Amino acid sequence: MAAGEPEPIPVLHPNLPALYRRRVEALEQALAGPVAAMAATEALRAFTDRVEVRASAEPRALPPWS
């Protein structure tokens, strides 16, 4: 990518909202049960594969959909 060009907005899989909805429902059920801490930890881990942070030389505004 050339300097000064904005980074492209990633294309998300069309089933992503349904997947997250199911994961939030699983988290909600886990938090309601007697072993909430352990189950909630597992449910939260399902949300994230990895976290990647990259520094930028210039501050950027958040996208309008964030």
Keywords:
66 residues; mainly alpha; 0% strand
Detailed description of the structure:
There is one protein chain. The protein has 66 residues and is mainly alpha-helical. It has a domain at 16-45. It is 41% helix and 0% strand. It has helices at 16-32, 36-45. Helix 1 packs antiparallel against helix 2. The longest helix is centred in the middle third of the chain and has 17 residues, at 16-32.
Number of helices: 2
First-to-last CA distance: 23 Å
Element pattern in H and E: HH
**Arithmetic mean of pLDDT:** 78
Largest sheet: none
Summarize the topology:
Elements: H1 16-32, H2 36-45
Task: Summarize the entry for a quick read.
The chain contains two helices and no strands.
